[in-house]
Amino acid sequence: MNKETIVNAGQNVARVVGYASTFIPVGGPILAAIALLANEILSLTEIAEHNKRICRNLSERVQTANQLLQNKMLTAERDNVALLNYQKALERCKTFIQTISKTSSLIRILTAREIERDFNDVTRDLDLAVGELGLQQIVRTREQVRRDNQMLRDEIKESLQVIEKALANIFDAQMSVQTKMEVLDAKLETIHSAMTHVDDVHIMPPNIESTRISSARVTDVLENGLPVVRGNGMIKKKIFIAQTVAEKTLGYLRSMSRTLSTIEKQVAILTELRDCQYIIRFYGTLQRDDCLCLVMEWAEQGDLYTYLHQVPNLSWDFKIRVATEIASGLVFCHTFDILHHDIRSHNILLTAELTAKIGNFESARKDAEDSVIQIPDLYLRYRWLAPEKLKDYANTKYNKQCEIYSFAIVLWELASQQLPYNNIESTNVLTNRVTAGHRPPPISETPEVYQQIMELGWCDYELKRPTAASMFNTLSHLKPSNGRSQLDIPSNSLLTLYTPISMPTTPTTEEGTTGYDRNPSKGGQNAQKTATGSPQEYDTMPEPDSTQVGISILRDSHKPLGISDALGLHRQKLYAQAWPIFEALAEQEDALAEFYVGYYLYSGKHTVRHDPERAVEYFKRAATKGIPDAQLRYAVALLEGVGVEMTPETNRIGVEYLIKAARNGNSNAMYNYGELLINGLHVAMDLAEGEKWMRMAHDRGHPSAYRTLADRLKELGQAVPEDVSESLNASV
User: Fold this and answer.
1) Domains along the sequence of the chain with CATH
2) What span, in angstroms and rounded, lies between the C-alpha atoms of 7 and 11?
3) What is the pTM of this model?
4) pLDDT in the model for residue 675
């Protein structure tokens, strides 16, 4: 940030963050710098790929501090010193958010085991700085510090789980988490180094030379006495080491001197991505008849575009599986900061087993590169191009959000088996329509969650688009049934699409958590309530990946409002508008709407009168249709006698639905069922089975599972498993 920028910002600081202009003479340039830093922190939070809650927590503290500064009279010299310290704290905060919100830098800091130390340093400095400014209400209590550190651990765990799931096949089964991080870090370093190295002096760049295969080892395949060719004869089916491959001719070497550096980058990318089972495998390069060729995996079924148009009425099982495989490949690319630049159905290839793999990396670049590049045959890509690129292609940098938009259009292609905007031939007309907010029409029988993730992906406001990891996580849990869908595990992501949330089962306690004590030694069924869940409620749940505040997706004005509309209004806290939609859809027996009607009636908030009896009826309706969160709510109501009379029969049914919710992946249900088992409440005591469910709850991120298990085992005079003790000690 140069001096001129700071001075100019100081002149407009009231507009930027609301500082009164009378404050400018005292630390004016500092206030300007603080204003810009606050905005930069907010922007970084909006585009964060990981650890959204931690980033949002830091950002909200900064924004609150800046608002409180409006009422401070900054006149003394010590105020300038305090402002300087605050500015430095914001700079460290910005750097930390940059580090933990991006996959590649997150991997590096995790590998170095520095993340928790850095977080504590950053938050401590921020506490000290706001304290010096007299903003004591921003300084955290010990309990808030503890919760922040737990939030960090939980978020890091979630990030690692998604990364590990998407990149599973590059790890050996016995690798520790630390070793896996080191493998990823080494691969990041290798690919960035290879892609950065361009030496035009060499006739044959090192990346190409190191992947050279003897042309004699790649032999012809004949069918009916003729070679098998695709792509205007530039791709030929061959045999290499007893497997079918594609030999793709790039051109004559003597005419490629200007493009060798680009090909070298493509080879570098393909070399490092060949560990991913959902990216077309690269075997090497060869020279044949003075031509440079790539040797790739052969896609027997051709490209997805052709397949969708040749095979009608494909099942949703196929469509969801293919969507998940593409998302996995995209996560792999984005983890290593690689942008494909041409995600569309033509570049999704299908193997003989119909496994989808991303291919054609000719236009691929590093995310850090200047990604405003000239693309050949750009007119072919317009239907998949993000609106911000269509508006100003030459001056708009291509980024991951652009790629997410393209993937969302591919999701629509899968749903419809049609060409996007097939009634528009003019690129000018198409550009005008897309930049005005028009999107492909809804396709009947599209699963609700699939529709939601697709619409978020093509959102006009790029910062609201989810990450590839978020989309992969959602799609990988979709289980189609009769054209509809539900998320299997974790069940709560059905409601948030991204971040699994734990539902409170009773009004929150002083600690902000919920549940009931199952320890018979403390009073059995009438025991005092203790913490078993998370403090999250559906109206305060964490926002999904790209700050899903105010979803704005163009819809046809005549289209009836659906569950996604109601959920969008609910997330925007427009409860009075969401309620009648939920209520109307519940009367049409929409399971998710029935759950939300029950939730509104149970909570007694959102302009709806508290009515536990009716709430239980709606929870029951949704629970019988397989909504895991409704199963949990219904179970707790029966077991606690909320809205119903407690009887042995209601207890039996309550346990039955608690088990269903647990088996459907609800972490709170896992925890509560495990607690019933280890205490012998409503069920026969079974420590081994209870421990199993407590471990499952812990693995799903439940914060109290191991502590409760350990306490109960100690009460019974039994040894606490070593891994449970180690985990508890590590979290202290």
Assistant:
1) 3-166 (no CATH), 206-297 (3.30.200.20), 304-487 (1.10.510.10), 501-731 (1.25.40.10)
2) 6
3) 0.56
4) 92
